Amino acid sequence: MITVTDVRLSYGERTLFKDVNLKFTPGNCYGIIGANGAGKSTFLKILSGEVEHDKGEISVTAGQRLAALKQDHFAFEEYSVIDTIVMGYPKLYSVQKEREAIYAKEDFSDEDGIRSAELEAEFGELGGYEAEAQASQILSGLGLDEADHGKMMSELDETKKVRVLLAQALFGNPDILLLDEPTNGLDLESISWLEDFLIDFSNTVIVVSHDRHFLNSVCTHIADIDFGKITLYSGNYDFWYQMSQILQKQAKDLQKKNEEKARELKEFIQRFASNASKSRQATSRKKVLEKLNLENVTVTSRKFPYVGFKPDRDIGNNVLNIENLSFSTAGKGDILKNFSLTVNKGDKIAFVGQEHQAKSALFDIIAGAQKQSSGEFFWGQTTSLSYFPKENSRFFDLDLSITDWLRQYSPDQDETYVRSFLGRMLFSGDEALKPVNVLSGGEKVRCMLAKMMLSGANALILDEPTNHLDLEAITALNNGLCAFSGVILFNSHDHEFVNSTATRIIEILPGDASPIDRMMRFDDYLLDETVKELRAKAYHHAERLQI
């Protein structure tokens, strides 16, 4: 158990937390939510001891081990993958290394023999004999190929390093598990495995995530950070959201009721203040009026952007035909092979599965950002396209303000018109004058979405658009795409985003297996028995070819 008592933290004049009192108990999973900048990651660092708080106390039950997901992806370059994972359990790692050092001695003394026996007993009690098997099992669940298990960390790319560090945090059954954005960099299959792992985990979990489906699946409680306070709610994210909407409505109703009452009191005071027989009543009502709280009632500091895509013209029946499209490179071989597809009017297609390079290559090609190796594709004459690429840094390598940057893509050069779109994406006032080459990942995504809204396109291609966005922005984008009347082709690791947006699911399978194409919601796709058989067959065949 971990207890937070009267914790306060300030940076200069800004108070991030004030008088926070919470208790996190075993068997529960707590989702930490809040607007960008509210202090979610900082709060986890306070719990782990990485950040020192100004006041209050953090206490952990004696003898309990706390494990946290590390954020420095390059901190273990000189270690092997398995050693990096075992280091998540410091006591076991220390015993293991001392044990190895003794057995490596050439002059093995009697004292070494006694000490080795002690270490063997302790090593067994800590689960050392099963450590490598457990580490490999976790890595496989997180989607890391078995061939990578024996490598050094320096040999892995950053996406694989992220998975190893997550395995490090999960390893050894810690009593308290702190996870900051654990689904970042994971595909949908790995996220599903992590959900199952945490659902079965019997100890305490405290997690920060922007993935609504993940929070709904694993959380028993939601801890909401707002105005420097942390309020605990029983239930998952959807339950918290419903409660927050009710509280917001109650606050607005109370505000309206107070305003109406104030208007009635003012009218009475004005009418009878000079009337001797009514002066006492007027004075009494004046005191009531002074006690009324007429300030705007704000339940949350969260700000939701507005995302709305309005096509300049309706899309025709001929949208997109793709015939035997292939793409290969000298270093990686066939990335996309003989892919064919007919996109229909009204389609909202989610491309899912583990062939991430193939999906991005397909999007780049049909958006005109990349040339195919072979095959053809044809957009309909009435189709106008707007593309959100996964990698957007090239768009922002400019010495321009946000306003001038967006003006490049605007049919109307009037500054008021351009800034109205920026305002919808929460760039108001001086924020709209920031240089684009210093923007955060989330700010760049909001700029790209403003660019897409300006385009008036009736066909949208989005490659992982939810990366770097907070829950409020993801919800706004989700709603905007659901309301969009045109065609959408997209890829995302956000389960809820895929399930609520897509009406058609396409999975590009490895090797020569034909893609799976189904007109259904994503949840139905995952439960479809024929789909399960096709996927299992394709991935099993691909594994055999690798062996």
Model description:
Helix 7 links the parallel strand 6 and strand 7. Helix 3 runs antiparallel to helix 4 and helix 9 packs antiparallel against helix 10. With 547 residues, the protein is of the alpha/beta class. It folds into four domains: 125 residues, Rossmann fold; 99 residues, no CATH class; 40 residues; 227 residues, Rossmann fold (3-Layer(aba) Sandwich), CATH 3.40.50. A six-stranded mixed beta sheet has the order 5-6-7-3-8-9, sandwiched between helices. A six-stranded mixed beta sheet has the order 14-15-16-12-17-18, with helices on both faces.
Q: Keywords for this structure?
A:
4 domains, alpha/beta, 547 residues, six-stranded mixed sheet, Rossmann fold, 41% helix, 18 helices, single chain, 18 strands
Major beta sheet summary:
6 strands, mixed
Radius of gyration, in Å, reads 28 Å
Report the portion of residues in β strands.
Answer: 15-25%
- Overall mean pLDDT score? 89
In CATH's first tier, which class of the largest domain applies? Answer: Alpha Beta
**Secondary structural class:** alpha/beta
Shape: flat
SSE inventory with pairings:
Blueprint: E1 2-11, E2 14-24, E3 29-33, H1 40-48, E4 55-60, E5 66-68, H2 81-86, H3 90-103, H4 110-125, H5 131-141, H6 158-170, E6 176-180, H7 188-200, E7 204-208, H8 212-218, E8 221-226, E9 229-234, H9 237-272, H10 279-291, E10 320-329, E11 333-343, E12 348-352, H11 356-366, E13 374-379, E14 385-388, H12 402-407, H13 415-424, H14 441-455, E15 459-463, H15 471-483, E16 487-491, H16 495-501, E17 504-507, E18 516-518, H17 522-527, H18 529-546
Parallel strand pairs: 3-7, 3-8, 5-6, 6-7, 12-16, 12-17, 14-15, 15-16
Antiparallel strand pairs: 1-2, 1-4, 8-9, 10-11, 10-13, 17-18
Helix pairs in contact: 3-4, 9-10
